[in-house]
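Suppose a colleague, Dr. K., hands you the sequence of a protein chain of 295 amino acids and asks what its three-dimensional shape might be. Before reaching for any lab equipment, you can write down a predicted structure in token form. Begin with the sequence itself:
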Amino acid sequence: MPAIDDLQLSIRSWAERLHGDGYCVIPDLVPPETIRALDDDLAPDFAATPFCRGRFYGERTKRFGRLLARSRHAAALVQNELVLGVAERLLSPWCDAIQLNLTQAIAVHPGALAQMPHRDQDMWRGETGEKEYLVNVMWPFTRYTRENGATRLWPESHGFRAHYPVAEASEQVPEVEPGSALLFLGSTLHAAGANASGEVRRGMIVGYSLGWLKSYENQFLAYPPAIARTFSPELAALIGYRQHRPNLGNFEGCCPSILLQDATPQHPGAVDALRPDQVLAVDEHAQLQLAPQSA
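The predicted structure, expressed as tokens, is then:
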């Protein structure tokens, strides 16, 4: 494991590249053995899951979520410290804490059509170009190539540039090996490619979004308390078992992590979870009422 200074330097370097180009490929992040073990764990789900209905998801594509509950190896990718650090650096200007937006396994089969180019953060219908909502990470299980339908990306199509037309010829299709990761912003124009090969392209996508947004995958249904109790506190917090100040995502006015205790209080009592500026304003308001009245 790199020294903390080296890790922070790597986070800053990759975050700058991601911010500048809208995407980047970080090589050799996890051992190929971890990827193979995860792919093996998910093989029964890939086999049992039907093809998607609808041309956006892809009628020759299979997708399913809840990967943290399907394989113990998924957490190593979701909590990769370099990737998490990059996501937090890119998103922290607009939130108190980031959250897991989804984990989704994807299998693009031969004959799959190219997906319509799109920007994932458009799902929230927020303003364009003022903030980033999302960082996505593609983890290949098989080698990603242009021929087998690897992700198409349009560099510098993100942020304020999303207001302007994008030249089709500027498309890039990075070839990515298992163990490496393709990161791209939620505002970056991208799409799955057409699979013109005879092989299935398999992998997973992990998304991290601003902690105050409604996540793409409903994490509390994917990982109810009985499952979340088996996760580390850090992973449980990432999937939503923590409050986002001020008081967002609470349970009975408390941090939802109380649901992971051995015995959840029936009447816990609400507890403020405010930003420092809000604490100051509330305290000043109270002090004005508590101060002795002048004669």
